[in-house]
Amino acid sequence: MTANSQKYWTGDPSKLLRVGPGFRLADVDPRDTPGYDGDKRHADDDLAAGADEVSQLQERLFAASRSDATDASVLLVLQAMDTAGKGGILRHVVGSVDPQGISIAAFKKPTAEELAHDFLWRVEKRAPERGFIGVFDRSHYEDVLIGKVRRLAPDDEIERRYGAINDFERRLADSGTRVVKVMLNISYKEQRARLEERLDRPDKYWKYNPGDIDERQLWPEYMDAYQTVFDRTATDAAPWYVIPADRKWYARLAVQALLLDALESIDPQWPDATFDIDVERRRLAAT
Q1: Residue 255: closest CA among 195, 185, 165
Q2: What pLDDT is stored for residue 1 in this prediction?
Q3: 134: number of CA atoms within 13 Å, CB side?
């Protein structure tokens, strides 16, 4: 990461947070802040500085794609247990850039039409176009998380899906998409506190879903399912990053840093003019 305006990073989050060989989710402290020496106050300043950088890079990427100067795009996959902060990432990180270059998809319970196709059918249609930052607010991984924990598909089908996901993400990468997969790792204790807040505040009632408690009761099973996801689908083409999420400010800053890293690896440039500038100056002066 080369975001020099962000003063308190002491390590590269794209390396510190990346899932590698031997990774164990149980070893991650959800309150940790890997590679960052600042506190919430410092993070707010750094997030604002990083927003300017993300916005500039995203605008250059979008402009280059409109002139056929690049085939690149970015896909940010957000996965987490309930209350982990995906909405805050969308507002404070993704929301800082020009919306015309953003596409967001939230994959809910599949419709009858979607169930009639392979599980990736609806997902492939929402892959980002060139020049876009695409965001999956939950994703195809629901089909190997909820699908596994709730036994919505046989074991052999779940196993097949891991391979299908790897093939899909490899095709995305080969076509020029930087795939950034993020799991916001909230603790069991912190989730309870956030659910209690939703019950305590009338302005939060709309966020509360009684089904969240049902899923919470299966916490160990979900943690095992996430571990299997990392074991099966953390690849060079589409790496996983596990971000401690008990501190919302750190999670937002870390996701922003990963987005910056992906955009900087593309290094989008302003496209050259496709017209004679001097001629157009003379034409404009004559009007």
Answers
A1: 185
A2: 47
A3: 26
pLDDT digit string, tens, across residues 6-41? 679 999 999 999 999 999 999 999 999 999 999 999
Cross-strand bridge partners of residue 78: 137, 182
- For residue 29, give Cα distances in angstroms to 57, 101, 221: 32, 34, 18
Q: Which residue's structure tokens are 């605008």?
A: 59
Angle subtended at Cα 248 by Cα 243 and Cα 252, rounded to the nearest 5 degrees: 65
Closest CA to 178 of 254, 265, 250: 265
Q: Which own/partner pairs from 161-167 qualify as long-range (CB within 8 Å, at least 24 positions apart)?
A: 161/119, 162/229, 162/232, 162/233, 164/118, 164/119, 164/120, 165/120, 165/140, 165/141, 165/233, 166/232, 166/233, 166/235, 166/238
Stated pTM of the model: 0.93
Locate all alpha helices (DSSP H) within the chain, ordered by sequence: 13-16, 40-66, 86-92, 112-115, 121-124, 142-149, 155-174, 188-200, 211-216, 219-233, 248-266, 277-285
Residue 21's SS3 state is coil
Q: How far apart are CA 81 and CA 86, in angstroms?
A: 9
Strand partners, 136: 77, 105
What distance in Å separates the CA atoms of residue 112 and residue 22, rounded to the nearest whole number?
Answer: 39
